[in-house]
Amino acid sequence: RTVHDGNVLPCYVRGDECIYSLNGQYGRNSTFVYLKSNNLGYDEDYKWLLKRGGDVPPAAVAFGQTNLGKPWFVGRAEISGGLYVGKVVPDEGLYVGYRNTEVFLKEYEILVQ
Fold first, then answer.
1. For residues 21 and 29, what is the distance between their CA atoms, to the nearest angstrom?
2. Are 74 and 109 in contact (CB under 8 A)?
């Protein structure tokens, strides 16, 4: 996750920076923290659930928040053959920074613990 304009944003790491999206925009930041997983790509305490339309189960991992304190959750989806992480906004869906824009996906996987 990273911070931009008071928002704490789920993001994905590419090289020495992270990629995030906010308000229709794509952003990069060299300052971020990440959730470390085991060498299988996930921790036994975490798993991904297929969801759609902004559905957020009670065990979803909130790894970000708006500058007003509303939570954002960790989601991921496939885009053009790659798997990208972004923020799940309750009652909406997944937003991912991709190719210099913010991409919206109605169907996604959400991280739960």
1. 11
2. no
3-state secondary structure (DSSP) of residue 51:
strand
pLDDT tens, 48-83? 999 999 999 999 999 899 999 999 999 999 999 999
Which of helix, strand or coil describes residue 102? strand
Torsion region of 40: left, alpha or beta (phi above 0 gives left; psi -120 to 50 gives alpha): alpha
Q: How many alpha carbons lie under 13 Å from residue 29 in its C-beta half-sphere?
A: 21
Q: Which residue has the tokens 């995030």?
A: 20
Question: Which residues, listed in sequence order, are joined to residue 111 by a DSSP beta bridge?
Answer: 48
State the pTM of this model: 0.86
Q: Could you tell me the two tokens for 104?
A: 């919206």
Residue position matching structure tokens 């909130």: 62
pLDDT at 45: 79
**Cα dist from 29 to 54, 64, 78, 90, 110, whole Å:** 26, 15, 22, 24, 23
DSSP tag of 106: S
